[in-house]
Structure formats: C-alpha cells, structure tokens
C-alpha cells in the first residue's frame, strides 16, 4: 500500500483555484512576443488558472528545438505580473529546480521521460526538499502504475504534499490515430491506490492532434478527473514543437465551454463515477481480449502454413482434447463454468479451423 498520506487538496494550493483546474499554455516558450500574446489571450478567457510553458524541451532526437532556457523564465515572470496567471514549468534536473526557484515559478511538473527514470526522480526529490510549491508528475512513458506511484512517493518522502498526477497517455505499440494510448485503467488504478491524489488529464499529448482533444477532455471529466492541461499557442502553425496538437486560445475557450461537467447530486455523481470507471475497465479488457484473439489467429495461420508444408491434417484430435480439458480445468479455477469455457473454446476452435483451411487452400492452389 502506498505511503502517500496527507496530500493537500487542490483548492488549498493557493487558496483560490477553480475546479476543475485548467492549465493552458504553449508546448514551449519561443519568444517574448509568443509567450505574452498567448498568455494575455488565455487570461482573457477567465477560466484558466495556470499558464504552462516548456523552457527546456526533452526531445527524442538531438538537433530539434530544445527550448529557450533561462531567458524564458523572465517572460514567465512578466506573464505573472501582467496577467495574474500562475506559472508552471517542466523540470528535469537540479539546475532547472534552482532556476525556477530563482524566478519564482509557481508550479513544477515532471515530464513523462523523467518519471520513467527513478535516478532522475530521486535527484529532483533531493533538490526539491523544503519546497512548498506544487509538483505535478506525468505518467511514465510505459503503462507501469508502480513507476508512477514510485515517483510520487519519492517526492512525498522529500516533504512535498502539494502533489498531483498528470495523465498524458502511454507509448502505443498498437496501431492508433492517437499519439499516446490513454489506457484509462492506469490512472484509475492510481486513484484507487491513492484516493486523495488529484489527477489532471493532458489530452494534448494523448491526442497528438487537435481533432481528438475535445473527446479526450470530455472523457477525463466523465471520469471525474480534477483538471486539464491543454497546450495552447497564439499561432500554432508557427510552433517550434508539437505544432499539430496546440489549440489557439480561442479554440481553447470554445472547447472549455462545450465540456459537460457533472452537475448531479453527490450521490448520483458517485454512482455515475463508479459506473464510468467500471465501464472503462470493461472497455479496456475487451480490447485486450480482442487483441489476444487476433494474436491467437495469427499463430493459428502460422501453424496452418507449417502443417501444409509438412502435409499434416488440420484437425489433430488429441491436441484438441487436451486443449479442452486443460482450459476447462483452468476456467473452473478462475470461477468460469464448464459450459461457458466449452462454448467459448468451440467458437474459437471453429474459427481457427476455418483460418487454417483458408491458409492451406491458398498454398495448395499455388502449388497447382
Ligand atoms: C510537455 O508537456 O510539453 C511534454 C514534454 O510532455 P510529456 O512529458 O508528457 O511528453
Ligand atoms: Mn508538448
């Protein structure tokens, strides 16, 4: 069980934050003009609490725009003075922490690549000892909830109680139009491990494209997440990083207006949340089930090829009987009835034979 106790409530961080918490701003600070124009337009919306901006950019390959560095922190100070927005910056090492303290940045976040590395997180936790600023921890690149919890625990052990998690999705191994797979069950598991921890969703990095941001943001609200971090740029077509996923302040305003927040009574709200959580677990399990079945069929075809080359029959009765008896036994152990497992396997087996027949026919037609 996690040692994440006495986590501060979001509303207690600065005394006047709206919930859900809305964080917006460019992927990267690029110029004084870009930062100030974007911040002023965002502040004019009235619904954003925090201005985000990358100052040091963790790029997958060297040679891309790696951030403006210390100079950008001065622009953020100006944002604070002129707009009243709070400021948030990504930190990845001790030097970054010293600089954000020097320029009095309000909130720090730890990026996905950094969370993935316990050495880096520990270095940050050591330099953040005694800090009273909130720290937001993005999920690691891979869907490992323990790595995420571990990073939060390291910071908590360093005395940081103003903590929140940011869900930004996970590296996709499967084909998807999204940049990162949301795997909603992972932040849900984090919440069930640590009930008091606020979780903010970053639909921009999940989507990778502005088109998908509204539906992902809505899903986060339906799951009762505590806020959103949305990349916003006054002129995204000129952005030096993450150009496709940044919205304009105007688009951000529309998106926030269209979001449906739950307004039902607490009791109904809890009920709807539980239902939504359970449904997204089912969605995720169904997806995994279908992916596994598709993998199984792939192997079946391979076997079909192999059998055909070696001129062996498709149906191997003894193998089939063994499959049935071992699976029924396993099913029983897992609380599934014999009847259900039998029917399921018969269906899978029928499809497998069909696939193998197709493979073998193709091969024998080729031979002719
Ligand atoms: C970012 O927020 O700009 C960023 C680099 O995100 P992530 O760490 O989620 O990739
Ligand atoms: Mn970005």
Explain the overall architecture:
- This protein is of the alpha/beta class and 368 residues long.
- Helix content is 52%, strand content 9%.
- Helix 2 runs parallel beside helix 3, helix 2 packs parallel to helix 11 and helix 13 runs antiparallel to helix 14.
- The chain is elongated and about 80 Å long.
- Bound molecules: phosphoenolpyruvate and manganese (II) ion (MN).
- Phosphoenolpyruvate binds next to loops.
Bound molecules: phosphoenolpyruvate, manganese (II) ion
| Assembly category | single chain
Largest sheet: 8 strands, parallel, barrel
Gap from first CA to last CA: 64 Å
Mean pLDDT comes to 91
Tally of DSSP helical segments: 14
- Give the strand line-up of the largest sheet: 1-2-3-4-5-6-7-8
Query: Which segments are poorly predicted (pLDDT under 50) over 5 or more consecutive residues?
Result: none
Shape: elongated
Brief summary of the model shown:
The protein is an alpha/beta fold. It has helices at residues 11-14, 32-45, 70-83, 94-102, 112-115, 118-127, 145-157, 185-193, 203-207, 213-222, 249-258, 266-309, 317-333, 338-367; strands spanning 21-25, 50-52, 86-90, 107-110, 135-138, 163-167, 199-201, 227-231.
Could you list some keywords that capture this structure?
368 residues, 8-stranded parallel β-barrel, binds phosphoenolpyruvate
